[in-house]
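Researcher: Let's run the pair from yesterday's discussion. Sequence first, then tokens, for each.
Model: Starting with the first of the pair.
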Amino acid sequence: MNFDEINKIIDKFNQSSVRELDINDGEFHLHLSKNENAPESPVQPAQQPVQANEPATKVEAASRNSVSSSNQIVAPMVGTVYLQPEPGAKPYVESGKMVHAGDVVCVIEAMKMLTEVKSNVTGQVKNILVENEDLVEYDQPLFEIEEK
């Protein structure tokens, strides 16, 4: 393929609704993607426990901003919320218990990716505003925290 053919392919790709394109032509390989945060490695399904030493996905940065002025921890993304690491296990947090800044309070699964939601403040959990396995919206309040 020459440079002009590659440019035509890129232009057509940009004008189309296709999200990813992969072309292999002998030794030539072209991969185009409109997905900004494409996962680089697979993540375990929700039925398995989330381990503390797992790397957090890029949404961790969003969860740092997840406590608003009213001391609510909000969902950094749309997905299914899990309040415990695995079925039958103890919940990450309970109403009335203390949490510290950086503590995992739940995980949200979206497209087979698990994202830890962490508390940004130290305080007491006043209310848990969602049930385990609820579908949550972006910026939906999940917990109310009384800052200490």
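Model: Moving on to the second of the pair.
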Amino acid sequence: MARIRSVHPGLWTDEAFVCVSPLARLLFIGIWNECDDMGSFEWSPLKLKMRILPADNADINELLSELAGNNCIVRYEIEGRQYGAVRNFAKYQRPKKPNSLYPQTPEILQWVGTEARSSRDGSEPVTHQFPTDSENSRQMEDGGDKMEDGGDKMEDGGEKERTGKGASASRTPRPDYAFSGKVIRLTDQDFENWRAIYHAIPDFRAELTSLDSWLTGQPAEKQNGWFHVASGSLNRKHQEILAASKAKVGGPRIAI
């Protein structure tokens, strides 16, 4: 059964969110309604299509891949069944009586931010929460905060090394990368996800090299947010190539 969820005003300017296509953004918000209170949902493209985008001419698998490639959601498997999880879901949704319907691994528990939820009963305050009752937090009033936790957009501490120069010196960076430039560093998983999502780009590694060279001349703020800057640029390039290919063959375009 679908559930009522809260939408934080800072979502609309969150870098990971704005880097995906409009339909992917709509699907992402709709997925929250399909999640249990721990941030997991059944990975069933057909059900998600019928529940969230029933009237849209959209490829739900491509949209899910786009969201996964931008680290909005993750797909996982337990005992042969496919599930999905929303990053930091438990940090922003605050049901009074949380109900868990789907199994989660320790990695998924960390991904959805369950540790922050459990700390509400302790002495440490939990930042950037979404109230679901009548209380109004400062974040909900001014809308100035993005979906952050300690400065990483939609990321937990386990992946902070991806932000390059903004990474904490106390964390040990991953030793191996599928692509390692002066600014851009992609793990095997991120590299393969991006290459699959932006499949229209003929020489994907060359495009990354060009982006990395461009980023070296940009301000530190943009370099620190290279993951989202690069994914946005790759998405634009991907869409331009697809549009040019359609125009060349003279194929019909379907308005959504």
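Researcher: Give me one sentence on the second I can quote.
Model: Residues 115 and 121 are 11 Å apart (CA to CA).
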